[in-house]
Structures are given as structure tokens and as C-alpha cells.
Amino acid sequence: MLLASCTDQPHEAGLDEAGRGCLAGPVFAAAVILPPDFHAPGLNDSKLIPARRRAQLRELICREALHWAVAQASPDEIAAYNIAQASYLAMHRAVAQLSVAPTHLAVDGNRFKAYPGIGHSCVVRGDATYQHIAAASVLAKTFRDEHMHALAIEFPAYGWVRNAGYPTAEHRAAIRAHGPTPHHRLGFRLL
Fold first, then answer.
1. Domain range for residue 76?
2. Most exposed residue of 30, 98, 138, 153, measured as fewest CB within 10 angstroms of its CB?
3. Residue 87 domain-assigned (yes or no)
4. So what's the pLDDT on residue 102?
5. Is the residue at 182 inside a domain?
6. For the chain, how many structural domains are there in total?
7. Where are the alpha helices (DSSP H) in the chain?
8. Which pLDDT tens digit goes with each residue over 13-36?
9. Which ranges of 49-130 does DSSP label H, i.e. alpha helix?
10. Contact 77, 86 (CB under 8 A)
11. What are the pLDDT digits (tens) for 92-114?
């Protein structure tokens, strides 16, 4: 069972990203503030949840969260700043979009660029430890996957419906055959 939050502060937001290791597409991040009595069976690190259940959890989280937001950083921003800094940028954008300022940020991972005026805690495997980080993980992944599915309509050869831009053999073979798209991260080793 996941813990509710890592401090006793009200309006603590969980933060996570999706798509950091991809070869194509933006990196997405989500910030989620849950009510104290939130309960979602099966909520966990989004990578461990089947796609159908992730979709159900996304609907539940969007409906029952006190506040939530999803943001992204583009492949151009990833190239300009590097993937870590672009991930922090997407997280900061998600926090800025919340309709209430969080009192604390609980961030999945071991590093974070401090958000002005709000303290934070980094939690390794936070998406498998805290509900609000797991909820952010689900939102970031489902919104990113949805975005990559939309891009796949224009660029079907790359298999983004199946691989979401991750470096699979299918994706790398398509890059060799067709070259990179405007959505590829040109600073990454594509082949």
C-alpha cells in the first residue's frame, strides 16, 4: 500500500516525468495534489501498470485529485538544456499550472532543480512509495503516450503507437530506413 505523502504539510504535490529515455517526442511531467482520503486500488509506478488500468486510473485521478496539471518540454528544449534540465523545466511548468500553490513538492528520483519558494523532497522510487507521485507518474505517462499516438498518425513508420518513442529495435530500424523526424531528439544517439 502506498503512503499518502512524505510530509504532514497540506497541499503537498507529487511530481514525476515520463519520456526521459525516449529518442523522440517531448518529455512530459505531472504535478498532483490528492485529497487525504484518496484511494485507488492498483496505483503504482505507471511502468508497472497495464495500459488499460493506467487509463482507468488517469480518469479517477483527474476526477478526484484536488489539483493536477501536466506540462512538457519539447525536443528543441531537450537539445538546448539537456534531458535532466528539460525534465525539471516540464515539472516546473506543471507546478506553475496548478490552481493552488503547493506547500511542498515530493519528486520522484534523486535530483531536482528547486522550484522558487517551495521546498521539496527527492524520493528514489517515489512512484512506488507515495500515492501522489504514483498519480503524477500515471498522468505523465498517459498524456505522453496519447501525444505520441497522435504524432504516429503523421509518422506511422516509427511505431510510436507501440514504442512511444523509446529506443526499441523497431524504432531504430525505422530511423535507419527513413531518417529522423522533426520530433526526434537530435542530441541523442539515435542509432
1. 12-141
2. 153
3. yes
4. 97
5. no
6. 1
7. 51-64, 75-81, 83-97, 131-154, 160-163, 169-178
8. 999 999 999 999 999 999 999 999
9. 51-64, 75-81, 83-97
10. yes
11. 999 999 999 999 999 999 999 99
Name the grid cell of 58: 488517469
Taking alpha carbons only, the member of 64, 7, 76, 70 closest to residue 35 is 64
119-155 burial by CB neighbour count: b if 16+ within 10 A, else e? ebeebeebbbbbbbbbbbbbbbbbbbbebbeebbeeb
167 within domain boundaries: no
Round to whole Å and give the CA distance between 146 and 63.
18
Q: 76-92: buried (b, 16+ CB within 10 Å) or exposed (e) per residue? A: ebbeeeebbebbbbbbb
**Tens-place pLDDT, residues 60-81:** 999 999 999 999 999 999 999 9
What CATH number should be reported for the domain holding residue 46? 3.30.420.10
